[in-house]
Amino acid sequence: MADETINARGTAGYLLEMGMLKRAKRTGWWIAGVKDPESIAEHSFRVGIIGAVLAMMEGADPAKVALMCLFHDTQETRVGDIPHIGRRYVEAASNEKVTADQVSAAHPAVAAGVQRVVEEYENGDSLEVVVAHDADKLECLVQAVEYREQGCANVQNWIDTSVAKLKTASAQALAEAALNMSSIEWQKTYLA
Which is nearest to 106 in space by CA: 2, 1, 13? Predict the structure, then answer.
């Protein structure tokens, strides 16, 4: 088989594996009593949007932040979404190692690119990395606000933890605003 065919199959396999993120649920929400929690893909999508918005507000590169946000949980196809409390008892491979395994058969440029994005997210200290991490925490907070609105009373810890970990002024301001709004407040402008 030609190298390009092998690389195409390996890359396509990686893309198919990423489809699992649409089916895999975020397990921490089950601890809070959410019966049908968001998928990892749903979480990652909004983290990417939040990351781009925060980057614009903070003067960081929105495309770079959105890319980091998009890949920040892709390893969970192999290790699952280990809830925070579970991490006390389970030692999982690093996200960098899982990513290297995931893309090992992909096109070399894809493998190098994905590994570089994950490595930077996990170990970097640039403004883009800080913003990407804030986006992850802010998405968790926004999701908790939505679940609280739906009647799940056990989400306050997720809100408090997320607020405490935010580093940028923009993320802190957005968190404060989100905590004082309903999830459908955005449409009031159009209904008036």
Answer: 13
Provide the domain limits for residue 59: 3-191
Report the domain count for the chain: 1
Please give the full DSSP string across 30-56, using - where no structure is assigned. Answer: HHTT-SSPPBHHHHHHHHHHHHHHHHH
Q: 31-54 in b/e burial notation, b at 16+ Cβ within 10 A?
A: ebebeebbbbbbbbbbbbebbbbb
Q: Which two tokens stand for residue 94?
A: 């690093």
Q: What is the CATH number of the domain that holds 137?
A: 1.10.3210.10
Query: What pTM did the predictor assign?
Result: 0.94
DSSP structure class, residue 85: G
Q: Assign 96 a pLDDT band (cuts: 50, 70, 90).
A: very high
Quick check: 79 and 92 in contact, CB under 8 A? Answer: yes
